Every structure is written in C-alpha cells, then in structure tokens.
Amino acid sequence: MSLSIILTTILSNFATTTPNLCDDVYLDAAGSPYMDSIGQMLSIYCVWAGPDAPVWDADVCCTIDDDGAACVVPDSNGRCAVGDRTYCEYGAKVGGGVVCYQPFPSMCDEGFCIEAPDVPPVAQALGTACCGAGGACQPVTLETLKACLENGGKFVSCSDGVEYEDGTMDCWD
C-alpha cells in the first residue's frame, strides 16, 4: 500500500463532515421518514421551495427550537458565535439571517398541471404538494401525508394555481 493511500485512509477515518440542516426530516408514528415514491423526504428545518431555489452551498450557524431553525452566516473566521454549524445546500440571505431551502420539482414539469381556465379563480402561490397516482394533488400537511404517500404520491412544487374547498388543488401551466 502506498503512503498516499495510507494517509488518505487515515484522514478519511478522522474527518468530520458538517451535518446538513435539511437531513432532519418528519417521521411517522413508527419513526420512519415520510418518503415519496422517488425517495424525497420532508425537511423539518428547511423551507420547502420550488426547483429554482437559490444555491447557497456553504455552512451556516443555526439555533434550532420548536419554531424551526434561525440561521446566520459564520463570522469572518468561519466560526459560530451562536448556534451550531450546519450545511445548507440551497439558501439565501434574508434580513440578518440565512434561510435554507429544500427544493422540489415543479408540478408542471412532472405532468400534474392543467391549463388555466378562461376565467380562472384568483391564483394562489401554493407551495409544496403531494400528487398521488391518477394526478390528485393536495397541499402537503402532516394530516394528509399518509394517504397521499400510500397512493404512490410524489412531492412537487406549485407556484401558480388554486386550492379547492375539498382540500385538492390544481396547478396551472
């Protein structure tokens, strides 16, 4: 074994990686993550966003409590004055802090959108949805997740559509 291989092996055994803020996900009653048909899970601390979420690709310092994560940029020496260091792949500066995002594919790119009606109801920015087999979509809530995922649901993002009184929604091309 060459010296470079030995050193690489030793260094990788002792290397630490910064945990990803988005890796903390919602769990069901059995302790398993809510996972859609393609393996996407729902982050607890990252804001769910569409596919155009800005790339951050850096560490942040986050204080986590029952209300979520409050994150800031590390100081000029890369240290956290408050909170714990965590990695944020997608995010942006908002006010004096950093918001980390978890992007989901566009509902339209996944084939779940419809053409807007000639006289559409007032459009709403709807956010993240779960679309099941057959195209039935509903906004993601912890109450509706199980049923949607049991029907082969997939997490997607809708930026322009409408939510109906029955809890379903349509997203427009």
Description of the molecule:
This protein is mostly beta strands. The chain has 2 domains: 17-103, no CATH class; 104-173, no CATH class. Helix content is 10%, strand content 32%. The protein contains 2 helices and 10 strands. The protein has helices at 3-14, 145-150, and strands at residues 47-49, 55-65, 68-72, 84-94, 97-103, 127-131, 137-139, 154-158, 161-163, 169-171. The strands form 3 sheets. It has a 5-stranded mixed sheet, with no helix packed on it. The protein is globular and about 55 Å long. It starts with a helix and ends with a strand.
Instruction: Estimate the mean pLDDT confidence.
Output: 85
Query: What gap, in angstroms, lies between the N and C termini?
Result: 58 Å
**What Rg, in angstroms, do the CA atoms define?**
20 Å
What is the share of helical residues? Answer: 10-25%
Total helices: the number is 2
Instruction: Order the strands across the largest sheet as they lie in space.
Output: 1-5-4-2-3
Uncertain segments: 1-15
Oligomer: single chain
Fraction in beta strands: 25-35%
Shape: globular
Number of strands: 10
Order of helices and strands: HEEEEEEEHEEE
Alpha-beta classification: mainly beta
Largest sheet: 5 strands, mixed
Q: How many individual domains?
A: 2
